[in-house]
Amino acid sequence: MSDLRAVIAGIGSYLPERIMLNAEMATIVDTSDEWIVERSGIRQRHIAAEGEYTSDLAIHASQNALDHAGMSIDEIDMIIVATTTPDETMPSTAVKVQAALGMVRGAAFDIQAACSGFVYGLSICDSFIKSGQANTILLVGAETLTRVVDWKDRATCVLFGDGAGAVVVQGRTDADDRGIVATELRSDGRQHDILYANGGPSTTGTAGAIQMKGKEVFRQAVTNLSGVIVDVLKKTDYEQADIDLLIPHQANKRIIDSVAKKMGMRGDQVLVTIADHGNTSAASVPLAMDQAVRDGRIKEGDILLLEAMGAGLTWGACVLKW
Ligand code: UT7
Predict the structure, then answer these.
(1) Given pLDDT bands bounded at 50, 70 and 90, which one contains residue 221?
(2) What is the model's pTM?
(3) Residues of each domain in the chain carrying CATH 3.40.47.10
(4) Cα(129)–Cα(131) distance, rounded to whole angstroms?
(5) Which of 43, 97, 141, 161 makes the best surface tag, with the fewest CB within 10 Å?
(6) 122 CA from centroid of ligand 1 (Å)
(7) Residue 39 CA to ligand 1 centre (angstroms)
(8) Homologous superfamily (CATH) for 179-321
(9) Pick from 226, 281, 306, 278: which is nearest to 41 by CA?
């Protein structure tokens, strides 16, 4: 019998049916496929249908994660949804997911840490499980970011997409050293103005649209993410060379490449899925991870390093043995 570990028991994701290629984006704003691919690595994004909400994306991803885990909703103690684009100001998107999945016990709530939401969520799951407050948690990252972009601002609207990813995190004492090994969370509220939405319930009474100083966010991302990777590894017995796969937030391929280079990682140690779905904020890491699980790139026993940075600024990393 080993120590209690928070293990990923199942994973799933969901992307809305409608795909918008860069060529279509060029009919909306003054841009080109060439510019978007070269500057960001994005080739297409998925757009939620009219009447399709963040909760709908979250429900699909959750069901896929439960199926992958071979579990029913009755085994879930808690649902946490990380999102910047909730269906409504209140209640949480998580309680809508709870009702739709038929969960009639436990607790459900949202967390807001922008693009770092899923990594923050993993840290919360680890803490809740180890403190005995919950044993089996459904953690979802879900977003409809295309609803909060300024479709006249070519510097931001080309970057974002809609999607959801979910994991079932379960406390197990027979996992040996599998599961969450360490997490490290950071934020710096002084950096608010480089990435924010210019609205909110308490300010304008509207959702607002994403405003970003792209170059500054890029610079901070490379520095902060490299730093937090070093710091989270210090909490473990692993070194950079032990990492089988880096699963970064999919915001910009050039950021991913710069961080990987700084960390001395080879191309095959880094997961890049941004071309297919753009920046899906809190959904980005579980979406990418699900793709890699399904195509066999992630195998049992692999050491994974997850990282993300977003508005806040917030950032964080997690070392996980699959
Ligand atoms: O998930 C949260 C974290 N977010 C991020 O990590 C995003 C971080 N930032 C970035 O990914 C990059 O800064 C961008 C992709 C947003 C922009 O790339 P960049 O290389 O920093 O370009 P830039 O903003 O310096 O713009 C270069 C040029 C400008 O024209 P001038 O002033 O040189 O004539 C822009 O007006 O590119 C122009 N531009 C565009 N051109 C065609 C900006 N957006 C576009 C566009 N199409 N969509």
Answers:
(1) very high
(2) 0.97
(3) 5-172, 179-321
(4) 5
(5) 43
(6) 31
(7) 7
(8) Thiolase/Chalcone synthase (3.40.47.10)
(9) 278
